[in-house]
Amino acid sequence: MNPFRRGRKQQAPASGPLHPDDDQWFRPIQPARGRGRRRKAANEVPGSGSPAARSAQPVTPDDETQTIVPPPDWLDDTTKIPRVTDAAPPVDAGGSRAAAAKKTVPSPPKRKRSKLRRLAWGLLMLSTVGFIVILVAYSRISIPNPNDSAIRQTTRVYYSGGSVEIGRFGDVNRSAVTLDKMPQSLRDAVLAAENRNFYSDSGISPKGITRALWVNLRGGSAQQGGSTITQQYVKNYYLTPARTFKRKIREALLSIKIDQKLSKDQILEDYLNTIYLGRGAYGMQAAAKAYFGVDVGQLTPGQSVVLASIIRAPSRYDPTDKDTLALLKARWGYIADAMVVTHTLTPAQRAALVFPKFPKQAQSQSRYGGQRGYILTTVRNELLARGLTRDQIDNGGYRVVTTLDQQAQESALAAVAKEFPKTKNKNVRVGLVAVQPKTGKVMAMYGGKDFLGKDRYAQVNAAYYPIQPGSTLKIFTTAALLESGRYTMDSVFTGNSPLHLPGSKPVNNEFNKSYGPVTLQRALDQSINTAFVQATFKLGSAKVRDAIEAAGIPHDTPGLETNARITLGIASVRPVLVADAVATLCGGGIHAEQHIVDKVYGTNGGEEPLRKPVISPDPVFPPAVVSKTIQAMEDVVKHGTGTAALKLNRPVAGKTGTHQSLTAWFSGCTPQLAGSVVYFKGDGTKSLDGVGGLPTFFGAVYPAATWTTFMKGALRGQPVEKFPVVEGDGQGQATANPSDRPVTTPVAPPEGGTVLQFPGFDNGPSSYTPAPKKPKPTPTATPGATAKPGATAKPGAIAKPAACTNDRSKATSATPYDARCTADGRIGKTGGGAPAARGGAPPPA
Question: 277 Cβ partners below 8 Å, 6+ apart?
Answer without folding.
Answer: 283, 284, 286, 287, 290, 291, 307, 310, 311, 314
